[in-house]
Amino acid sequence: MDYTAAQSGFRQQPDMRQRTGAMDGSDGSQLFEDTSGVGFGPQTGYRNQPAGPQAAGFAGQTLLSDPMSNLAMAYGSSLATQGREMVDKNLDRFIPISKLKYYFAVDTVYVGKKLGLLVFPYMHENWEVSYQQDTPVAPRFDVNAPDLYIPAMGFITYVLVAGLALGTQNRFSPELLGVQASSAFVWLIMEVLAVLLSLYLVTVNTDLTTIDLLAFSGYKYVGMIVGVVAGLLFGRPAYYLSLLWCCVAIFVFMIRTLRLKLLSEAAAEGRLVRGTRNQLRMYLTMSIAAAQPIFMYWLTYHLIR
Fold first, then answer.
1. Please, are residues 288 and 254 in contact by the beta-carbon 8 Å criterion?
2. pTM of the model
3. What are the backbone angles phi and psi of residue 104, rounded to the nearest 5°?
4. Distances in whole angstroms, Cα of residue 179 to Cα of each of 54, 116, 159, 167, 217
5. CB of 223 within 8 A of CB of 249?
6. Residue 185, Cβ neighbours under 10 Å: how many?
7. Could you read off the pLDDT of 148-180 as tens digits, one per residue?
8. Closest by Cα among 286, 223, 283, 284 to 249
């Protein structure tokens, strides 16, 4: 009897655990979630999410279809265009970029002919600048047209040659080379300003621009380079002889070039110059031409010893 009761008690214990488990699962307060069937069942978590590229495409289409976005993009592009036009307009007011392109429109043939004209201007006959529909042709088509390429390259070459001359004398230093370059540039600017002031005081109506005067004043660097190089190679007598030749050449070049710009049409054709105003123009032309040899000697004599 006792064995049977004990056996029956042992058999009833699992039934009570099962009932207890069923009662605990029926009230919804289960401690751990059963995830054993997630891999085999339908994945509802990813069913309602669109794919990556498709989602990006839908977002871009939504942004482009938004009228406010289109309006903002159009307004931003218009502001950028107005800002670029304003910058170009103000920049062209102080630095005429379109005009500067004309003065650098040169080629190798023009540079060679112009250098020969600066060193030996005595055989050149026609000094008038060619025009095409009231506009001067580019320098590469006319050797008489002023340019800024030769003055710019001449200034840079002059500074390099000055550094070489100082180095051969054991006097080179970056500070001294900087002083040499800055002094040459300051003298050039002062010369152009003095000519502009003289033209204003004499009341000369001419088509010479500030860039033209800068170009004509910068041609003297060619003779300065020739003189310094000759002095470095052959000594001080060669410096004086070559510089004297280049000074006379630049004087003749400036007289024959500026007389067509400053003097009257009668003087340009070779007729007698009469009148106080024409005489002032002639004196002004000769003064500008005579100032070139003075600057050439002043900026080079200390480089040759």
1. yes
2. 0.69
3. -110, 10
4. 67, 30, 10, 15, 20
5. yes
6. 12
7. 999 999 999 999 999 999 999 999 999 999 999
8. 223
